[in-house]
Amino acid sequence: MTQVDPTAGSAAGSAVGPGAGSALFAATVGLAGNAPPRAGAWRLFRDNPVSVAAALVLLVVLVVGLVGRWVAPYGINAVDVANALQPPSGAHWFGTDDLGRDVFSRVLVATQVSLRVAFVSVAFALVVGVGVGVVAGYRGGWLDTVLMRVVDVMFAFPVLLLALAIIAVLGPGTTTTILAIGIVYTPIFARVARASALSVRVEPFVQVSQTMGTPSGYILRRHVLPGVSGPVIVQTSLSVAFAILSEAALSFLGLGVQPPEPSWGRMLFDAQGFLGLAWWMSVFPGLAIFVSVLAFNLIGDGIRDVLDPRQRTLLQARRSTRVPGRRRAARTGGAA
Amino acid sequence: MTGTPAVVPANGAVLSVADLRVSIGGREIVRGVSFDVRPGQTLGIVGESGSGKSMTVLAATGLLDAPGARVTGSSLITGTDGGAPTQLIGAAERTLRRVHGDRVGFVFQDPSTSLNPVLTLERQISESLETHRGMTRRAARTRALDLLTAVGIPDPERRLDGYPHQLSGGQRQRVMIAIALACDPTLLIADEPTTALDVTTQAQIVELVRALQQERGTAVVWISHDLGLIGQVADDVTVLRQGEAVEQQPVLGVFDAPRHAYTRQLLDARPLLGQSAPPPADASGAALLTVESLDVRFAVTGPTGRSVVHAVDDVSFTVRRGRTLGVVGESGSGKSTIAGALTGLVRPRAGAARLDGEDLLAGRGASGRRLRRRVAMVFQDPFSSLNGRSTIGTSIAEPLRVHRLTASGAAERARIAELLELVDLSGDYVDRYPHELSGGQRQRVSIARALALEPDLVILDESTASLDVSIQARVLELLLRLQAELGLTYLFIAHDLGVVQRMSHDVLVLRGGRTVEHRPAADLFADPREEYTRALLDAVPPVRPRAAQAG
Amino acid sequence: MTAGSIARFLGRRVAHSAVVLLGVMVVVFALVQLVPGDPVRIALGTRYTQEAYDALRAASGLDRPLLEQFLSYVGNALTGDLGVSFRTGEAVAGTLLERLPATVSLALVGVVIALVVALPAGIWSGLHEGRVSDAVVRVVSQAGVSVPDFWLGMLLITVVASGLGWLPSSGYVPIAEDPVQWARRVALPALTVGLVAAAIMTRYVRTAVLEVSHAGYVRTARSKGLPASVVTGRHVVRNALIPILTITGIQLATILGGVIVVEVVFAWPGLGRLTYDAVAARDYPLIQGAVLLMAVMFLLVNLVVDALYSVVDPRIRLS
User: Fold this and answer.
1) In this model, does residue A1 exceed pLDDT 70?
2) Could you tell me which residue ranges the ABC transporter domain spans (chain B) (predicted)?
3) Of A204, A327, A335, the CB nearest to B385
4) What is the ipTM, given to two decimal places?
């Protein structure tokens, strides 16, 4: 697994002067702060065909995750050795595996497993990370230093390696996988939330509250948390994508979700010995991962675009002129 | 120094703009502006925010880079070596590139972002010489040295190999001017070139541009929001309002016989020196705020280590009840840091501040919170000092709730309505969001929120500096009225001496964190004792335009 | 003055890395402490003699007090002694060093592939924001980020190795032994790693270029009438280089420590494969050693990046 989250850019850049690393970080943290209410944001999101397509795909994935178990044509462990390694057909849309199990049914059911692991682990990372990050960023001082050193330490471990190490300690399984993925994605949320909280903290409207003697709790609840919500929403969408990938990788290594429960990664693990023999065993579960991850990533991107003030202006300008791709109009659409 | 005599369009102008229109997203921002720039003369373009002044000039010179903008009209610039004038509207990139940097030079507003941080000054000056003049690197370097010398950069030889971050703001703007003039352009575009600078630096830049212009015969378009400044630099003036040129005539005419009501309004709203003072207030009343030997230091962590900035160094002053103390200083003077220390945002290293005898600096916990209530602050930026996600009502309610100043929801609503009325806003603003309000309206809301605390002392930290002059004048009037009605005491922090004179009974002049002068306003303005105070006063653009003094 | 500020800057970075390294060691050390039950017993399986148990326990120092264990662990680690493998009884450090070249060659080739793809694509896309070509680059790179790397590897094996038979699907030959065979064998795994990294880096490069292209000094450069190539090269890309350096460093470090799955797919005898086997066998000293080594590599790569910053950015060199 070689994925890093888009915000990890500051791992090296955080201590470097103006400009360095900030361009990367700004990608999400720039959304923090004093944005007006989100009126119109939804309309802009809706106007982006890529976002809409991604949302529709995501909807399908979620529905499959919810009802997959009931609509699957075959049992997930319905072994039928006589029909092993059948290519896709009318009876078996995605073919059958080496034990004759229906790949389509297994992909459907695995959706739920994979999504559950991703959602629960990201929820864990979100709650812990945002809590730590907001407190560190808002309070500053020694607490900030200590918390951020801990985050630095966690960033020094490659994501999958840290997850592996945690599994080595706790033993493989679904619960461990959730915990491991949750832990490795916590520091990213902490970084995003801290950087956003830092930028909100110096906003004049927060300073006004401080000069008026408003208690920290009120300021955190009323001003800081809403201020960091934009970057955190974007990060959540992207992290779910990465969590699906991480779960797949761990299960592929045989250390994540354990049989008899099917998971996309585990199915790819099973397919390994049959790469030349039965392409469908690896292609369809892989496609399922790819499509779900892509949907979450594109939606994260779409949200970022409508929340980013500069992007927003661009989108709004385009929306009202209805001439996409005319960026150079100012220079070419002249007197003629 | 000037190159070959410029060939001018038929009407003799260096730049001739006719019926220029810019629209973005179906909305017309510039609506049919025409103007001519005469050789060797300065055209001042003045307008408030939203007047489209920068957009007009950037569109006319082919440098506008706004997404989805449509530009129509005509803009002709004189050709070189007897060639025909060049049409810039709708011109090809290649044509524009030949004109930019060669026949037109540009100076932009913010010197801290206009220079490339990773290139040497030599490279940044010489690259246009290499492009347009075909100079060798060596020849360009010699020319760059001449230019740095001409714009008054000390030790230019050494600076050639230096980088922008080693220069002060004023020096960076001098380098920008050197870059703009590198190829001896016939036209210099200066887009608010002094707005980000201190007044004394502004005065130097004005003189520099003037001297270079006379020496080289360059025509200048000077864009500014400040009519006083335009009076000092311009020969002709175009007044823009909402994308339309409402007044165009020589500078003397604009000042002496303005034709349009809007021009008159701009002239009247200017905060001028020696024009007005606040109503008198008791000079022997009780001291409300006493500050003694205040000392604030900041640790600054850079990429290569920590350093300490001594922001406020042994500053003492007194503010009497019902009076206004004006605090004046340029950037780095420590004036805002003092406000921060008094409101608990910044922790001072030493010194004392007493409000009615109570220690303002030590206050923490419940007693601290009570003291916070007695000192209110209004910040500079009307856009960021209100939470964009909260309604106006919620913002004003915050101090009421935090300090339990109203007994019930109904009382709270009534009080908010009352406060809005106090700042001349109607009650239906309660449910609106800040982005629906203009800058002046937002600043009124900020003032209402400050008043909600029922404070003894109101700190106004550049509270009107970001507003357009006409709006600033009305907000200042409001502040004076509130002081009279509610008996408020102000600590009025500003860089604009005209505004300070209008508001203050006493004045404290700061420089580099230290007190320069602390005296009653009338004495200080009539007879400044310190040279620095005099320099500040001299740097303020006078009431009459420069042309009037010359003629 | 120049040397002084670079030294100060790097000094701070080294000090910071040292603190992080100490934290890393705490985590790595704590790993074994957190194992429920007795790690030695787990490692030995069900059948063992008391003698073997005592010997392994003493050799791994698990019979001493915790703080002493930690201090001696740090002391040993700093002198290159990472203990002995539960499984093979060989020195962990030696085993790791043996596997390092395979991983490093894979990572370096991967990063080169990533840069070759990401730099032009990201710069193009960033300079043409909002155009169709930008949208294509954005969607394609987003797709690349969404592909599980091991799946991409499996597809490449299916098509290129099994299907077309152009390249071997697994195995490793040291470059010193036979450069041609090395290249043939590194191609597919490096392509797998490189393409995924390219997708990530394209997005970063695009963001960096986009950010810079809206900077005031780029407008200044345009106002000088410079050729587009000069504006792009000298002004946009030079400044975007700083964040690009950052992400290149991070990608290199991530690949060095994160190619576990790809190494498993391609049977590549590197650190990732070693770690995987160690986890499966619960060989704790080896897991600890591998994790520590990868974290150290991450810190080292970042220090190199920091050193490069001070070359690229005069604000650090001359502050």
Assistant:
1) no
2) 15-267, 291-537
3) A204
4) 0.84
